[in-house]
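Fill in residues.
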């Protein structure tokens, strides 16, 4: 199971495409057919569908299935590079409840084993957008938002 935090142009879209996304915490292993949860980044929701988000975006917006995943080749001559992947997602559900940075920031006891803490650690400890692998426990927790 995977999750992505990225800028989302249309939260209601039936398909999402994300190009050259950073991967961390096992995110580079994402493949076609994987389940993924989509979070709108705190940089905002832009474009059509953004009306109604007058402050921070809602965080979790959708779940879906990866329809394509293509690793991006590393640039020669650069020693340390974060693996990047371009993915396309077919949305399977829209979130019914809010789960964003404001709800997750309270969970900062990094070793408590809670799904909320895993998400806070992987997405918000470093503010960059990224694809991450998530535990089965966290995936089950996220399913409760649909």
């Amino acid at each position: 199971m995977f999750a992505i935090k990225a800028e989302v142009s249309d939260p209601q879209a039936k398909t999402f495409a994300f190009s050259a996304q950073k991967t961390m915490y096992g995110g580079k292993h994402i493949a076609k057919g994987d389940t993924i949860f989509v979070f709108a980044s705190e940089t905002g929701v832009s474009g059509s569908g953004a009306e109604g988000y007058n402050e921070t975006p809602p965080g979790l917006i959708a779940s879906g299935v990866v329809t394509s995943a293509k690793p991006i080749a590393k640039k020669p001559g650069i020693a340390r590079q974060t693996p990047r992947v371009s993915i396309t997602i077919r949305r399977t559900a829209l979130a019914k409840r809010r789960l964003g940075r404001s709800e997750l920031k309270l969970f900062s006891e990094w070793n408590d084993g809670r799904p909320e803490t895993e998400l806070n650690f992987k997405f918000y400890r470093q503010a960059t957008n990224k694809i991450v692998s998530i535990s089965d426990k966290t995936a089950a927790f996220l399913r409760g938002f649909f």
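The chain has one domain: 2-143.
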